Amino acid sequence: MSAADLLRADLQLVISLVPPGSRVLDLGCGDGSLIAHLRDERGCEVRGIELAPEEIAAALGRGLSVVQADLDDGLIGYPDAAFDVVVLSQTIQVMRNPALVLREMLRVGARGIVTFPNFGHWRVRGYLAFKGRMPVSESIPFSWYDTPNIHHTTLKDFREFVSANGGEIEREIPLSAGEWRQEIHEVNWWPNLLADTAVAVVRAKS
Asked: Which residues neighbour 1 within 8 Å (Cβ) at sequence distance 6 or greater?
């Protein structure tokens, strides 16, 4: 098993979407696993932003360039079009100001790659409808009282959100997976109903 195989399945897909040699900024980069792979396997010039000190320490231990900042304050200090790709993985739903974060992504990067859980998935709908309780699933593994997910979106909602904030979706990849670390597959039919996760490539409207 390669090191890339140990990454979450959606992150493996993100890696495949980043052209070799790109300038990449990872927002909410965690311990730097994604950008370390992009640097080592695709020759990318990588940077990361993270809030949690322990995650920053882990990323620095990998020899990565990571700064501490709150994404909800924007990307102050980063010039326009400074990066080829800006990644926001499983983070937009926890942002207080997701619209600001998206606009800043589109400002500093030629393209953005956003991954997020799809709250329109049939299991989420069924859980609430038949159990009368807030859903807990593989992709949304939190109880309502301790969830970091403060903005719940579906694929349909996300499309409108991107358009309303000056962007357009270049490619949408709906995914379904039993567990994060198992193989995932692309959903070709009724994506808003059948996909539990989505990866979207976005850019500023031309």
From this structure: none
User: Which residues have C-beta within 8 Å of that of residue 86, sequence separation ≥ 6?
Assistant: 24, 25, 26, 27, 105, 108, 109, 111, 112, 113
What pTM was computed for the model?
0.88
Average pLDDT in the chain: 89
Measured between alpha carbons, how far is 117 from 81 in angstroms, rounded to an integer? Answer: 27
Three-class DSSP category at 29? coil
Distance CA(122)–CA(26), nearest Å, equals 30
Cα angle 155, 158, 160 (rounded to 5 degrees) comes to 115
Q: Which amino acid is at 108?
A: V
Q: Which residue has the tokens 């800043």?
A: 104
DSSP 79: P
Residue type at 132? G
Higher pLDDT, 202 or 189: 202
Tokens 């995650």, residue located: 55
Backbone angles phi, psi at 43, to 5 degrees: 65, 30
Distance CA 119, CA 78 (A): 32
Tell me the per-residue pLDDT of 78-93, one tens digit each, with 9 for 90 and over. 999 999 999 999 888 8
